[in-house]
Amino acid sequence: MKPSLRYRCRLYNKALIHPTPAWARLAAPPFALSEEMKTMSMPILLPEGALDEVDATVESFFSLVDAAIPGKVRWNTDGTDEVVNLYHALQYEGEVNNGGHDQYFHNQNGHTPVYVSALAGLRLIGALPYAELVEAMLSWAEDHPEETHGTLDSPVSPTLERLDERFFEISEERLVRKLVQEWLRRSPEVWAVPYDEFWATVFRYQGL
Q1: 179: which DSSP letter?
Q2: DNA mimic protein DMP19 C-terminal domain location, by residue (predicted)?
Q3: Which of 8, 122, 142, 144 could bridge 127 with an S-S bond, Cβ 3.0-4.6 Å?
């Protein structure tokens, strides 16, 4: 069972007890909540039309998750929350695109829960070639701990360089962000809301 956002928000308020989920109380008004939505662990709100474009989907999803789920919860995930797993899967793609597996590994400080969450997210959307790369990276870290303590200025491991080559050989039709977009389109927990209401909700999560 996925943890509710009320559970996630305990990092902010350990005494949080309320019959309506925390995300629902933060989201309204002006957003009108149906009874079905009030029973969800956390519906994924996106601006109307965002799912028509890959970049709009990813940017909106990141904005929502960054605001709604505390960083400590994302960092210390147990790998069972699909929303957090998708977030980390997209983060993996973005980091490797920017600076390879070396950058991705070191920017997460060798924090295994983040890698395991990304792996779960990749498997969730069917991005199995990428999942294999993350698995290989984790095997490298386990087998060569002496190589994991370097910095971004240290020579890049040949193993990670080979993973980079395999990463960029994967078809553009199977990009993680495209698979996330397809998954979100199919998910019953995704709700399209007017643009202004989406950002009002994000700002409310942020306490602005």
Answers
A1: H
A2: 82-186
A3: 122
The domains located in the chain, with CATH, are 8-206 (1.20.1420)
Helix/strand/coil for 193 = strand
Confidence tier at 152 by pLDDT (50, 70, 90): low
Task: Please indicate whether residue 136 or residue 32 has the higher confidence score (pLDDT).
Answer: 136
Supply the DSSP string of 61-110, one letter for each residue.
HHHHHHHHS-HHHHHT--S--HHHHHHHHHHHHHHHHHHHHHHHHHHTTT
Element (H, E) at 129: helix 128-143
With a CB cutoff of 8 Å and minimum separation 6, the contacts of 110 are: 141, 148
Does the pLDDT at position 106 exceed 80?
A: yes
Q: Locate tokens 């002496």: which residue?
A: 146
